[in-house]
Write a structure and sequence with these properties.
single chain; 93 residues; mainly alpha; 4 helices
Length: 93
Amino acid sequence: MHSFPLLRPPCKVTTSYSFSNALVPQIQAKYNDDIRNYQDPIKRIQAIRDEATNTEALWRYLGQLGLLELRFDFAKETGEGFTWYLLIIDNTL
């Protein structure tokens, strides 16, 4: 019987991201409302991101990002965007 080596795909790496830094100026500019009213929801979305370690949590986080992007244009208004990376990149093709 032949033994085959296990393939190990490269690990994905993420950078830290602060929703507070991105959302607070946009909320103040768009809604002209007291930012203290939004501190708990901002903390919750940050917690969802920080806890997204399994498939179910990642899908939940992705859904929340989609909802945020409906209201805020992160790339245009803050210069920050949500970058998606391919898991495996084959440069030999």
